């Protein structure tokens, strides 16, 4: 269950367009990435992961515009402790399953849209599996033009040094840093920098990911408390700028924010619970993370 919760935390993070954009713009070195319209980005609420692998991997599918045309980005979140030499075959199967789904939906008129496959790996072992299907097939060259020419892009977190990640300074690089070069002092500094410049919702999701790690015992709870304190302090500093507002206006604003915050938090918890429930996580565990009652979760 710990791995399942960890998978869910990752999927939540990269379902945020700001964080997804950072992944592509920082770690996918292809010229067309600059032409992507991230304002048009939407996630496809469907998974093509085989039943046998749902405990060790998850997937995320984005649809967005590239020069006015639809393009899909398929991200496989790989959490296996061991390296699967034939994972390229499995990813190819997921991509073709996506294509079959699009055809059956009636959305396709003449040609299929391009799908760019990414495998994001955060295991400890060095990733050694071939990225091209052709490398897994014996005597593939004899097939000539009829051979399978599929290849995925590998993003292995443990291949990036702490120095490289510290130079990047965004949410994704800090995530990789926390996973592979955990250093509380460094992370506190990085988080402080992020709070100054990053999207507030993305930062909130990132902090929530640390909370999940603390609950599961993957990091010390005092470390999470230190991160939360930094976040709280930054919010307090920003709120100081509202002192120039008249007391009447300030009171009205605060009342509206309090009401909106309460409603927003409730809605966020419900959305999280729905996604966790869809991923097969038990009501007991969902309740633990969201604070919703098991009866509320049952009725979602």
TrEMBL record:
Limits of the Transposase (putative) YhgA-like domain: 6-171
InterPro entries named among the record's database cross-references: Rpn/YhgA-like_nuclease, RpnA, Transposase_31
Pfam families for the chain: Transposase_31
GO-annotated molecular function: double-stranded DNA endonuclease activity
Protein name: Transposase (putative) YhgA-like domain-containing protein
Gene Ontology annotations of biological process type: DNA recombination
Similarity comment: family membership: Belongs to the Rpn/YhgA-like nuclease family.
Top-level taxon: Bacteria
Organism: bacterium (Candidatus Blackallbacteria) CG17_big_fil_post_rev_8_21_14_2_50_48_46
